[in-house]
Amino acid sequence: MFSQVLKWIHWADANGLFTFLTMLLLAIYRLIRPLIKERIKAEQNHEKLQALALADQLAATIIPELVVLSELTGDQRKKEAIKFVNRKLKVLGLSLTDETIAAKVEKAYSVYKNEQKGKQTSRVKESSMINKRH
Asked: 79-120, pLDDT tens digit by residue?
């Protein structure tokens, strides 16, 4: 059996089969490796985008709840919001830097504040229109 394998190896070597197979494997590796790397990178980018979108939603969820807590200072509210978003992302197996989460929390607070101003402005307009009718 061993001698048969050795004969086949000598035959393949004499006919250049080993060289051909080696070069074929090398060529396949060089062609497939960039595709695999790109696929991994795309998957990581997709996960990062998912984490960013989820952080936006989580921050928008927690901000209205923290704003009404008068016993906390603004800085404490921000830290609590960051902790909340970070914990929820980690539970889901996602992660973002604290700076990114802080930016998401600040953005959510800004949107919340603008929405509140918009509601107040529309209430003032409605009341002034009601007063004009009477």
From this structure: 989 999 999 999 989 889 999 999 999 999 999 988 887 766
Cα–Cα distance for residue pair 14/3, rounded to 1 Å = 16
Most distant CA pair in the chain, distance: 111
Angstrom CA distances, 42 to 37, 39, 97, 129, stand at 9, 5, 20, 54
DSSP per-residue codes, 81-107: HHHHHHHHHHHTT----HHHHHHHHHH
Distance between CA atoms of 89 and 51, rounded to whole angstroms? 7
In order of 28, 92, 108, the CA distances from 104 in angstroms are 44, 18, 6
pTM of the model: 0.61
- In terms of phi and psi (left: phi > 0; alpha: psi -120 to 50; beta: otherwise), the region of 127 is alpha
Q: Which two tokens stand for residue 130?
A: 């009601």
The one-letter amino acid at 69: L
